[in-house]
Amino acid sequence: MTLATATKRSARRAPDGPGGGRTAERGAWFLVLPALIPILVLSVGPLLYGVALAFTDAQSGRTAPTRWIGALNFRDLLHDTLFWDSFRIGLLWAVGVTVPQFLLALGLALLLNQELRLRGFARALAIVPWAMPEVVVGIMWRLVYNPDAGVLNETLRDLGLGDGRDWLSGLATALPAVIVVGVWAGMPQTTVTLLAGLQNTPRELHEAAAMDGAGAWRRFRAVTWPALRPVALAVTALNLIWNFNSFALVYVLTSGGPGGRTRLPMLFAYEEAFRYGQYGYAAAMGCVMVAVISVVLACFLAGRLRGGQDA
Amino acid sequence: MNLRPGRAARGGQYAALLAYLLFLAFPFLWLLSTAFKPPRELASLHPTWIPKDPTLANFRQAFDEQPLLHAALNSLAVAAGAAVIAVLVATPAAYVTARLRTRLSRAATGWVVVGQAFPFVLVIIPLFLVLKNLRLVDSVPGLVMVYVVWALPFALWMLAGYVRAVPAELEEAAAVDGAGRLRTLVSVTAPLLAPGVVATGLFAFISAWNEFFFALVLLKTPQKQTLPVVLTHFVGAEGVADLGPLAAAALLATLPSLVVFAIVQRRITSGLLAGAVKS
C-alpha cells in the first residue's frame, strides 16, 4: 500500500522533480513496469488479501461461501494457549539465534579483517553454510545430533563426558539444539555484511589512534564501532525478522517436536493453514506475527538510535 | 607503529580463527564422512571420522529410493527459469532506480526492506488461493512466478548497486559524442553491467534452487517436486535406518549451489556492499 501511494505521488510530481525531462520520466515508467507489476500483483496484492482473509472464516474444501466474521479470529487467537506457547518459543528462538549470531559473526569479521595467513581460504570457507539449501543444513545437523551414529555424542563419549543423549527429542535440549543450528546457518551472511562494513572504516583513523597509544579495545570502541554501527544495526534488525519468520530449518530438524517445544509460529501457522485448512485463522496468526515483530523492531531501533546519540 | 599485534596476540588470533573454521566446517565434514560409510559402520556404536571401507553404495541406494535425478531436473528448470526472468525484468527497472532519483526508486528500495518483515504464511495463503483459481497450484510455471517475485526486490537492490558503479560520466561522454540513448546503453553501459547481471542471476538461481517453503506448499504431485522437498521424504518415516543414502542425497543437492556460489562469491559480496553503502 505504501508503495502504491508513493508511486502515485511521484507520478504527479514528476515534471518538476529532479528526474530530468518529461520524456525521460515516461521512458522510465516503461522500464520500471515489468518489475513493478509482478511485485504489485504477486507480493503487495497477496499481502493485502492475506490481511483481509484474517477477518473471514475462509477454510479449505468448504462449499458455503466465505463470510466476514470481523475480529472473531483474533478473539479466538487471544485464548489459544498453544499459539501463545508457540509465540513465546518463536521469540526465544529469534533472540537466541540473533544475539550469538551477531557476536560470533562480529568476532569472525574482525579476524578476517586482519592480515592473517589463510585469510582467503578462511573467507571462502566461512560462507559455505550460506550456499547450502536449508533442508540440507537441517539434514546435516540431524546427522551430527544423531544419538547413535552422530559425531556429537561420540565426541562426548571420547572425552568421557557421559553417554550423550538424544538431543533433538529431549524436552530440555531440543530448543537449544536447534538454536545452535540457526546460529551456524546464519553466521556467514552476517559475517560478510559486517566485514564489508569493517572495510569501510577509515584506516588512517586506526593508525592515528594507535600512534596516540590506544589499545586494541579502545581502538575498537572509538574508531571501529562508530563506523560499523549503522551496518550492525541494519543486519541485526534484518536477522531478527528473518529468524522470527524462519521455517525450513526447524521443519527438517524436529518438525516442531518434541511436544511442541520447537514449534515456531511459522510452523504452527503452516499446519493450521495447510494441514487443517483454516486459512482465515492462519492469516490472523500471520497478522499478529507482523504486528509483534514490528513493535519489537521499532523498540529495538528506537532504543539503539537513542543510545547512539548518548554515546 | 604498533598496529601489528605482538606474537602472543597473533597466536591467539590464529587459534580463534581455527576454532571458527572447525565450528563452520565440522558438520559438513561429518556429512561427507556419513555419505561414504557402509551400513555396518553406520550402525557401529563408535562412528569414526574417516570411513574404514568407503563405499558409493549410499549414492546408488539414494537414487533407487527417491526420484532424485528427476527432482534435480525440476529444480534446475525452476531455478533457471526464475533467475532468467527475474534478471530480464529487474535490470531495466534497476537502471531507472539507480539513475533517476525519484520517489519511485525510494519506494522500491523501501519495499525491499518492508517486504522482508512479513512472514511467508501471510503471503502464501492468499497466493495459494489465487494460484488455485488460476489453476497454477501444483504447476511448475506457478512456482517459477512465485520465485521471480520473491527474487525481484533483492535483484533490484543488487543491480541498482552495480548500475551506480558504472560512472554516469561515461554515458554523458558517449552522448556528447553523438551516441543515441539506446546506442549508449548497448555499447557503453551493458558491457560494464554484464558481470553484475550475471552475478545477480546466479544469486537468484541459488535462492530458487535452495528454496523449500513455497515448493512444499505449492507442489503436491511427486513428479513435479523440487530437490529440497524430495530430500525431506528421506527424513520422514524411516528416519534412522537410512542415514547413508540421506547423507549422499543431501551432499549431491548441495554441490550445484556450492559450485555456483564459489564462482560468484566475490561478486556477491561486493554487490551487497555496493547496494548497502551507496543506497
TrEMBL record, chain A:
Keyword Hydrolase: no
TM region(s), chain numbering: 28-55, 91-112, 124-144, 167-187, 227-253, 279-303
Segments for region (Disordered): 1-22
Database matches in InterPro entries: ABC_transporter_permease, MetI-like, MetI-like_sf
Topology of this chain in the membrane: Multi-pass membrane protein
Cellular compartments annotated: Cell membrane
Signal peptide: none
Biological process per Gene Ontology, one example term: transmembrane transport
Keyword presence, Nucleotidyltransferase: no
Keyword vocabulary terms for this entry: Cell membrane, Membrane, Transmembrane, Transmembrane helix, Transport
Listed GO CC annotations: plasma membrane
Domain of life according to the entry: Bacteria
The ABC transmembrane type-1 domain, residue ranges: 87-300
A Pfam family hit: BPD_transp_1
Family: Belongs to the binding-protein-dependent transport system permease family.
PANTHER family on file: ABC TRANSPORTER PERMEASE PROTEIN (PTHR30193), LACTOSE TRANSPORT SYSTEM PERMEASE PROTEIN LACF (PTHR30193:SF44)
Protein name from the UniProt record: Transporter integral membrane protein
TrEMBL record, chain B:
Major subcellular site: membrane
Annotated localization: Cell membrane
Protein family membership: Belongs to the binding-protein-dependent transport system permease family.
Record-level GO BP terms: transmembrane transport
Superkingdom of origin: Bacteria
Domain ABC transmembrane type-1, first and last residues per copy: 72-264
Keywords of this entry: Cell membrane, Membrane, Transmembrane, Transmembrane helix, Transport
Record protein name field: Sugar ABC transporter permease
GO CC field: plasma membrane
Segments crossing the lipid bilayer: 12-32, 76-96, 108-131, 143-163, 184-209, 243-264
Membrane topology of this protein: Multi-pass membrane protein
Pfam families: BPD_transp_1
Record carries keyword Cell membrane: yes
